[in-house]
Amino acid sequence: MERERTVMTSYGDLFDDVIVEMLSRLPVKSLLRFRCVSKSWSSLVKDPSFIYKHIKRDDNMRLLIYCTYKNPYDTDPFNDLITYFSIFPDKTLTDLHIQDLERTMKGHITGPYDGIFLLSEDNTHINLWNVSMDEYRVVPGYNVRLPSDTRAHSSDYGLGVDPVTNDFKLVLVLTLWDENKQWTHCEFSPAAVYNFTTNCWRDVGGFPMGYHYRFEGADDIYLNGFCYWVVRRPDYYKEILTFSMSDEVFRVIEGPNIPQFLNYYESAMRPWMLGIYDDCLSILYSEEIAHSFDLWMMKGESWTKQFTFGPFIEIYQPLTFWRKGEFLLQSSDKRLVLYDSKYEEMMDLGITGLWFSVNILKESLITVREEDT
């Protein structure tokens, strides 16, 4: 009994700190088994602070790849592309064999968001799947009232925890299509929040836009109670859209002091790759034909160019953050490589294609199973 009380004391206790640190290093399956050790361990595994401590660990990641390449045996120019969705099972990337995920997932796949995949039938019907915990939830459809002569054209998401209520939330932002203008509706974007505890959507009114923002890519970044997306205006000027999980308010903030290119091609060829580095919101950026790339970090309310990596012999486009000091890049001849900035080494991952995107699958304790009533 005394042992139980000791573990349940505040994290300020040295013994508790050691226990929490040890448990945070374990894989999800082990932590799920250890829930039965004590009530305090069971509560710890459900605690959002511990969940994100566990998610942030560098050894808690696997690499996902969406790759499209030309089928050398197909002569039909309209049907000669092949796309596959795969994962590197080896977390260390020492073993480079990949595992096909196409057969595992059905429907349109978005994510993962801190280990949670969104499997959608359309823009307003979503299912949640935590791969690590093998949990699945059918989310009720979002019944949205749309302006006349419009329909849902695309959807963007964010997932994180409300630091005030400790409840996990899913954010949905819809881009509408104007049937009369045959173009995206630029006056309003409906938005809603799905609450994991109540299992229902709540309309947060969307946000009237001074500009018609388009989301750059499908992925958000969650950090310290906020979701972040890179968005661009009609003139291709890029900014950062934020959403507070507690206040449920959208806000647009300026990005770093990076040259803005106000035409589609030049803007698209210089994407902002949003991520987290040293617990700060960060952006990887390179010029189209540059032999180096920059890492910008947001500290407080301002952006700082923290590092410049290179120059390299070849031209590389940064794709995403890997472990600390490591980045995934695409070479000019369409190869996927891992760059270790500490040792200044490039590692070819054996993936080549016309284009590909990469994402990080983190083992996650965010439960999507509905609580028994």
TrEMBL record:
InterPro entries: F-box-assoc_dom_typ1 (IPR006527), F-box-assoc_interact_dom (IPR017451), F-box-like_dom_sf (IPR036047), F-box_dom (IPR001810), SCF_F-box_component (IPR050796)
SUPFAM superfamilies given in the database record: F-box domain (SSF81383)
Entries under CDD domains matching the protein: F-box_AtFBW1-like
Top-rank taxon: Eukaryota
Xref: SMART domains: FBOX
Domain F-box: 8-55
Classification via PANTHER family: BNACNNG10540D PROTEIN, F-BOX PROTEIN CPR30-LIKE
Protein name as it appears in the record: F-box domain-containing protein
Organism listed in the record: Citrus sinensis
